[in-house]
Amino acid sequence: MGCEDWFITNDEWTVLRFEIGMRMIATGMLAVLLSAGAAGAYAQQSGTVAEDASADMSPVDVLPDIDVDTYDDAIIDPAKSNPDLIDGLIYKPDAIPLSQYRRRTTDPESLAVLSNTDVIAGDGQTERSYYAAIYSGSTSGVYFKVAAQICEMMSRTFERHRVHCVPLRSQGVGSNIRLMKEGRVQLAIVQSNNNWEAQKGIAPIPGARSVMSLHDEMGLLVVRNDSGIESVGDLRGKRINIGPEGSASRELWLELLSRYDITLEDLDTVYNVAQDYNELGICENYIDAFGLWIGHPATLIEDTLGCGARVVGMGGPLTDEMVRANQYFFNQVLPAKTYSAQEEAIASYGFKASLIAYEPADPYVVYWITRIVHENIDRMKEMYPTFRSVVADDMYEKGNFLPFHKGAACYWETDAHACDWQPYYQQADPKGPSKWNYSYQQ
Questions:
Q1: Superkingdom of this entry's organism (predicted)?
Q2: Angstrom distance (rounded) from CA 407 to CA 420
Q3: DSSP character for 441?
Q4: Does residue 186 sit in the same domain as residue 294?
Q5: Hey, is 409 helix, strand or coil?
Q6: The pLDDT value given to residue 21
Q7: Rounded Cα distance, 286 and 201, in Å
Q8: pTM tops 0.85
Q9: If residue 220 lies in a helix (H) or strand (E), which one and from where to where?
Q10: Cβ proximity of 193 and 280 under 8 Å
């Protein structure tokens, strides 16, 4: 073999680079590449959608003087005398001071036994502070940015409620649910289908309670301009990435294709790789389309549109049938000019992002999170464009299948006894009249 046999052309290097990238993403270091010319080839990987990109589940930001990695790391004892056992649920939330959730006694009768009724000193006044932590997703994803904006609004209105708020990163919806089952979550962002499945007992989340719905998580196709794809029905015979085995995006793809009577064998090439490689696949002409069910606008999509691609909705009569058959799906519309060169509104479908709380979480904290976000949703739309899809009434009316947490129920006025917990937080300031007697109702 001569030396010249070792050289490869630029085109061959591009192919090799894509193949190596595919292999790396699917196993963590190396994974099976689905060869671009092998129709119906599959790679295997356990993975998550783009929201689940971060592998580090420790908070990126914590409250002062709290080391979350070592704070209150005692082994949980499930015995009834355990002060971390509240109404039968273990509760040791990350990034929350021990004094905010640990019971003084094991008396189960009253919220007053919670340590968060302690009085602390601040600026020479007798004041109390409270703490909220919202588990979200990767720091580059929409969930984390949404949680961060909620906390920003809580900070701007701090004097009304004295609730400190911090967003916590995670691997996404799946890890948020697991962490709640472990008693480590106070508040978390999931999807309306998770809310529905938990309520139906299909995928229970013990102690999970609804707070409010947030932004739309709309499904969109990103397609090459030369692909000829104008709708879901046009995907037959095309090259697409449907995501790794076991990922949420793959399950959504299979459900959508099935509704349109498209099998994987009907596609030219099927890739099973992580969503991180969609941009490379489109730009290097290895795939014709990929789909994402996320909040919009999304950097993952905008970055791809610069190399001859456009967005296409997943709407249509067959999609409408699927929405009618599933309570957790909703018809949605992407406003015009959300993305580059998108001159018209686009019809599609998707979920609602769903803020849930753990039942033992402080109702005072949950109440004020609910109230501040709902009252200031128009301001939040200006702060972060993902909130533009939020309709104020939908925050209560859509996607909340689980019973409401007592704090949210009080704000939404779900029943006559929804605010029965309030007297525990209306103690008079010993230095003056009823300083903490906040006005809870609108």
A1: Bacteria
A2: 10
A3: -
A4: no
A5: helix
A6: 57
A7: 41
A8: no
A9: strand 208-224
A10: no
The pLDDT value given to residue 98: 80
CB 271 within 8 A of CB 262: no
Q: Report the pLDDT value the prediction gives residue 81, as an integer from 0 to 100.
A: 57
DSSP string, 363-412: HHHHHHHHHHHHHTHHHHHHH-GGGGG--TTHHHHSS--SPBPHHHHHHH
Choose one of 327, 351, 375: the last residue of a domain. 351
Q: What is the CATH number of the domain that holds 13?
A: 3.40.190.10
Query: At 424, is the pLDDT very low, low, confident or very high (cuts 50, 70, 90)?
Result: confident
**8 Å CB contact between 90 and 182:** yes
Yes or no: say if 179 and 190 are a contact pair by the CB < 8 Å rule: no
Of 396, 399, 429, whose CA–CA distance to 410 is shortest? Answer: 396
Written as six digits, the tokens of 97 are 């001071």
Mark out the alpha helices in 164-222 (DSSP H runs).
Answer: 173-181, 192-200
In the chain, what percentage of residues exceed pLDDT 70? 71
pLDDT of residue 79: 56
Q: What is the mean pLDDT of the chain?
A: 79
Q: pLDDT for 269-312, tens place per residue?
A: 999 998 889 999 999 999 999 999 999 999 889 999 999 999 99
d(CA 306, CA 340): 8
Among 351, 371, 390, residue at a domain's last position: 351
Which region holds residue 316: left if phi is over 0, alpha if psi is between -120 and 50, else beta?
Answer: left
Nearest to 266 by CA among 279, 254, 276: 254
Amino acid at 433: P
Same domain membership, residue 113 and residue 15: no
The two structure tokens encoding residue 279: 């941009």
Spatial distance between the Cα atoms of 43 and 179, rounded to a whole number of angstroms:
29
Domain containing residue 418: 85-216+353-425
Which tokens sit at 128? 């109390």
